[in-house]
Amino acid sequence: MATTRNRPSENSAAQVSRRAALLSLAAMAATPTLLAAQTYEIWSVGDAHDALQTDLIRMIDIRSQGEWTKTGVAEKAWPISLHDARFSERLFAARTLADGRPIALICATGGRSGSVMRSLRQANYSGFIDVSEGMLGSARGPGWIASGLPILEIDAALSDLPSQLV
Predict the structure, then answer these.
(1) pLDDT at 7 (0 to 100)
(2) Sign of the C-alpha dihedral computed for residues 152, 156, 158 and 164 taken in this order
């Protein structure tokens, strides 16, 4: 004689699992967290802008002075040129100032920020994000400028730069 166990129906278990997954996704989408900021290494300009506005990250524009002058600098980004002889020193000073927040890197089209990210990964540094669309756009997206995100003139961006990064 076969016995039958009392077990919840597979259908109700699937509904509970789906509901839990949907609630988790909704919670993550509604409230971005620093944990999420630390998890992903490549972000869109929209995600970076939103995280800057909610103080979840800091961002460094690693382009040259001439590029900043020509196009401006993303609002709230710290202009620290990769071409500066003190770039590494200033990058890690920015990391200290970020007080545990990830540092996003942006350049023109994602090439330089990607290169810096590879170097940081090889040296086992974490807490950095590549905004690989860049200011001008790339295969990953239209970029900061074409997305209509806020820009500061270079003089304003430099005056907003913390003294520890000058």
Answers:
(1) 39
(2) negative
